[in-house]
Design brief:
This protein is an alpha/beta fold. Helix content is 24%, strand content 24%. It has 5 helices and 8 strands.
C-alpha cells in the first residue's frame, strides 16, 4: 500500500499560502508571499534533501502542478530537481486536457476513488506539496497517512491554512523532529488511529 504524505510549510497560526514567492498565490489579497525565504539556510536545505532524496511520486492540485511545471523541467540538476522530474505527477484537475511535462497523469473524474486505487497500487510514496485546496479533499476523505511539516516561527493572521475545514478527528504520532538554527521545526507525524479522550 502506498502512503499519501503531505509536506507543508506552515506558520505558527497554520498558514500555508505562497511560501515560496510574492506572486506564487495572491488570492484573497494575500501579501506575504515568500515568507519562508528569510529562514532558508544550509540546515533546512539538507533536511529537504533528506525528504526528497529517495523515490517518490507526486500528487498535486492544479495550481501547484502549474507552478511546478513552469519551473522544474528546466531545473533537473541536484537531488530535488532530479527527484521531482523523475516522479510520476498525478494532478487532480477537471480542466487540464494534457501536458508536455513527461510522466504526468491527469485525475479528472472521481478523484477520491482514483486516489484510493493509487494507494492500493504498487509504487513509491505519494508526496503532496502545496495544493492547499486539494489537501482539504484529502483530509476530508481520510486519505492522508503522514504529515511532514515545516513549522516557521512567524504568524501571518490571514491566508490559506493547512487545516481549513476539511480535517476529520484523527490521532497522530510524532515519528521524528528536528529544528534549524533559525527556528524552523521539521516534524513528521504518522496516523495513529482515532482520537482518544479522558478526564483528570
Amino acid at each position: 500500500m502506498r502512503k499519501v504524505i503531505i509536506l507543508s510549510f506552515i506558520t505558527l497560526d497554520g498558514v500555508m499560502q505562497a511560501p515560496g514567492g510574492p506572486q506564487e498565490d495572491t488570492s484573497g489579497g494575500f501579501k506575504y508571499g515568500g515568507w519562508t525565504v528569510p529562514y532558508s539556510d544550509e540546515h533546512s536545505g539538507a533536511m529537504m534533501i533528506a525528504q526528497l532524496g529517495h523515490p517518490f511520486d507526486l500528487l498535486l492540485g492544479r495550481k501547484t502542478y502549474d507552478i511546478f511545471r513552469s519551473y522544474w523541467p528546466q531545473h533537473n540538476e541536484g537531488i530535488i530537481g532530479a527527484g521531482i522530474n523523475a516522479a510520476t505527477k498525478y494532478v487532480a484537475s477537471t480542466t487540464l486536457a494534457g501536458s508536455d511535462w513527461e510522466k504526468t497523469v491527469i485525475l479528472k473524474d472521481n478523484v477520491v476513488d482514483e486516489i484510493k486505487k493509487l494507494k492500493q497500487s504498487d509504487g513509491p510514496e505519494l508526496q503532496v506539496h502545496g495544493s492547499g485546496n486539494f489537501i482539504q479533499t484529502l483530509l476530508k476523505n481520510d486519505l492522508v497517512d503522514e504529515l511532514w511539516l515545516k513549522i516557521f516561527p512567524i504568524t501571518l493572521g490571514s491566508g490559506k491554512r493547512l487545516f481549513d475545514g476539511g480535517a476529520i478527528p484523527t490521532a497522530f504520532t510524532l515519528e521524528n523532529c528536528s529544528y534549524t538554527p533559525k527556528g524552523v521545526i521539521f516534524a513528521n507525524y504518522k496516523r495513529d488511529g482515532e482520537v482518544k479522550t479522558g478526564s483528570f
